[in-house]
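Check these lines:
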Amino acid sequence: MAEQPPNLRTLLLGGGHRWDGNPPAISEDVAALLTATHVSLPEAYLELLRLSDGGHAFLSGDLGYVRIWPARTAVEYNRDYEVQKWLPGFVGFGDDGGPDMVGFDTRGTAPYPVCAVPFAPMEWDAVRGRVADFDVFIRQLLPVEQRDEKRNH
């Protein structure tokens, strides 16, 4: 029988993966995010916010690094960057520490793919790092020893 992957709490807080996270989100901030996005956000993403209101980590995937914004910041950045005007159907939830915003492509049906797009120009043709959904995305967290090796190179 195949070994089950760790649940999100174990993945983020169990010590085997390096997740530098914030304290849990307050319920009002999560509610504001849900109201502002007008889509049903993935439960794994909401669970992450309830465990850690944003944070950052190295990843094994294409992006290599992600900074997930606190819930209130996600509301503000999606509004201030006019994400729906420039990239209808995209819901940003973080960035790569550089020129790209990371978020959900909600143009189709759930589960929503996670991808990165430049802050400028913000257009669908520039999408990179697409993965199937948030659960696949967050499980790209590097184990502590691999994260330390990546940092030293």
Observations:
- The longest strand covers residues 90-95.
